[in-house]
């Protein structure tokens, strides 16, 4: 968790999180994770963020009316007083140059986190765990529907 001090009614943070002597602002790890997660999801070429349970939970939460989509789901952060590091697992769209996508993700996450929190982003580790091929989802859905209908007792 990052702590930033300031005096007076409003709290301000310097670019590197320096303390200005006007009070204290605390930025929770989850806030940084949410900012980073949203920046990652908005990057063209990212199909999904997170694996397994966190990915499924994020998909379900996104469909429930009035619920938060969990922007930080699938994103792990380590937040110090002035710096932060981000770890993320992503699934990329087929055909996207992964090294270029990783550069765009790092730029967008760094810009968003540093602008919104004043923390310096020192590291962004990206683990590409899968490639999404658009036709695979459609084929799997059709196969699943066929197997369900043929397995029914008539």
Automatic annotation (TrEMBL):
It comes from the Bacteria. Residues 1-25, 132-154 are annotated as: Disordered. InterPro entries: Asp23. Residues 135-144 have a biased composition (Acidic residues). Belongs to the asp23 family. This is Asp23/Gls24 family envelope stress response protein.
């Amino acid at each position: 968790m990052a702590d930033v001090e300031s005096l007076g009614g409003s709290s301000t943070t310097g670019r590197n999180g320096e303390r200005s002597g006007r009070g204290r602002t605390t930025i929770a790890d989850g806030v940084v994770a949410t900012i980073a997660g949203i920046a990652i999801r908005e990057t063209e070429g990212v199909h999904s963020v997170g694996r397994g349970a966190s990915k499924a939970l994020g998909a379900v939460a996104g469909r429930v009316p009035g619920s938060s989509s969990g922007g930080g789901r699938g994103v792990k952060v380590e937040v110090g007083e002035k710096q932060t590091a981000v770890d993320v697992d992503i699934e990329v769209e087929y055909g996207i140059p992964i090294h270029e996508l990783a550069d765009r993700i790092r730029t967008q996450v760094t810009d968003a986190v540093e602008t919104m929190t004043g923390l310096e982003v020192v590291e962004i580790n990206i683990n590409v765990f899968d490639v999404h091929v658009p036709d695979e989802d459609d084929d799997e859905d059709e196969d699943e529907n066929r197997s369900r209908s043929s397995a029914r007792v008539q």
